[in-house]
Design goal:
The complex is a heterodimer of chains A (about 210) and B (about 160). Chain A is an alpha/beta fold. In chain A, about 40% of the residues lie in helices and about 20% in strands. In chain A, helix 3 (about 70-80) runs parallel beside helix 4 (about 90-100). The longest helix of chain A has 13 residues, at about 180-190. Classes of the chains: A alpha/beta (about 210), B alpha/beta (about 160). Chains A and B meet through helix 5 of A and loops of B.
């Protein structure tokens, strides 16, 4: 049946560990985590997929040699099986969503003036969420600003401490972390109380 | 005062009013309308008597100084992997002042940010006195904020 063949949108993990093609990423056992490819060559992305090493998500604008357009998004979804795509281009994020993936649109949040400009006039699109960059500002935003961000929200950038990551996870569905911070967070999860463990292992929102 | 918005081709009146109030006027070259972030745009703002020009373009620092204005480089922090490149670019540009954004997270980054040997301003999402004090304690010389409740914080 047609309805059965339709894929659900991909599930966003609570943590995406940034993978720039250097040291292989290790997913800590007690985190609900996936891999975000970024700052990597197009050939390395394809090689990874050919080796059966499918990434959870990709920061399309940072892939060297790949355009930030619909053709590239189709290639990621159809050929490489990566269905969560971050981009600065609204039309690409919308295209990913129209293909059943999850498009994540970057919102640069350097100051409130810039954030207001970035969010001006953007209507929410089903299947398109927001990447707040740098993610570390998320706990400093007003509730009214958070309400304007399309969900799911990913906090991405300058989360250098586990405390900051935990603060962001209270407000966002997902955080992007480097391997060292993810490892430290996993230790925190292991040693923490039930609410913190739940925060790190439960999907915050599913469509 | 930092002017971040407005018609860059008609800023003369605003700058004059700022001067009449005994303040200095810093204009954000990248954000105002009507003026291009290039050497001619810098010259235009200098003609309007801007005391300082703010931009993220490091190559314009010498141009701004040559025009007799204070050169403020806006340093946008987004990802840790970009920091080293950004810091090298700042050092090469040689600004008079650096404005770091988002300033509110400066306390969590202070160990990563080198001493550039020039005043460091912090701006972005600084809204409370506690935010301001934390940022100043983290090494900022001053803060930039659009929150009116903080404008008189150190006035006395």
């Amino acid at each position: 049946m047609r309805a059965e063949s339709r894929k659900l949108r991909p599930t966003l993990p609570r943590v995406l560990i940034a993978d720039g093609g250097g040291q292989p990423v290790r997913i800590p056992r007690n985190l609900m985590a996936g891999v975000l490819l970024r700052d990597i060559d197009i050939t390395a992305v394809v090689r990874r997929a050919a080796d059966g090493d499918t990434a959870t998500a990709i920061d399309l604008d940072t892939v060297r040699g790949m355009a930030s357009d619909e053709t590239a998004a189709d290639f990621l979804i159809d050929t490489l099986g990566v269905r969560i795509v971050m981009t600065r281009r609204a039309h690409v994020a919308t295209h990913v969503a129209s293909r059943g993936g999850l498009g994540l649109l970057h919102a640069l949040a350097f100051d409130s003036t810039g954030l207001t400009r970035a969010l001006d006039g953007s209507a929410p699109v089903p299947g398109v969420g927001t990447v707040v960059s740098p993610g570390a500002v998320l706990p400093h935003m007003r509730p009214s600003e958070l309400e304007q961000l399309a969900r799911p929200i990913v906090a991405y950038g300058l989360l250098t401490r586990t405390a900051d990551a935990l603060d962001c996870l209270e407000l966002a569905e997902c955080v992007v972390l480097r391997q060292d911070v993810a490892d430290a967070l996993a230790v925190t999860a292991h040693e923490s109380t039930q609410p913190v463990r739940k925060l790190l292992t439960t999907v915050a929102a599913e469509e | 005062m930092f002017l971040l918005r407005g018609n860059g081709l008609a800023l003369g009146t605003s700058i004059r009013r700022i001067h009449e109030a005994g303040k200095l006027a810093a204009v954000h070259l990248d954000l105002i309308d009507g003026v291009r972030a290039d050497p001619r745009g810098v010259s235009w703002l200098a003609r309007l008597q801007a005391d300082a020009v703010i931009t993220s373009h490091g190559r314009l620092m010498p141009v701004i100084r040559k025009e007799g204005a204070i050169a403020i480089l806006r340093l946008l922090l987004s990802r840790r992997t970009h920091l080293d490149t950004a810091f090298t670019a700042v050092s090469r540009a040689g600004p008079d002042i650096i404005e770091v954004l988002p300033g509110v997270i400066l306390p969590s980054l202070k160990e990563l940010i080198p001493d550039f040997g020039v005043p460091l301003l912090a701006g972005g999402f600084i809204r409370t006195e506690a935010d301001a004090e934390d940022v100043l304690a983290a090494g900022a010389t001053g803060i930039t904020t659009s929150a009116p409740n903080l404008w008189g914080m150190y006035a006395s």
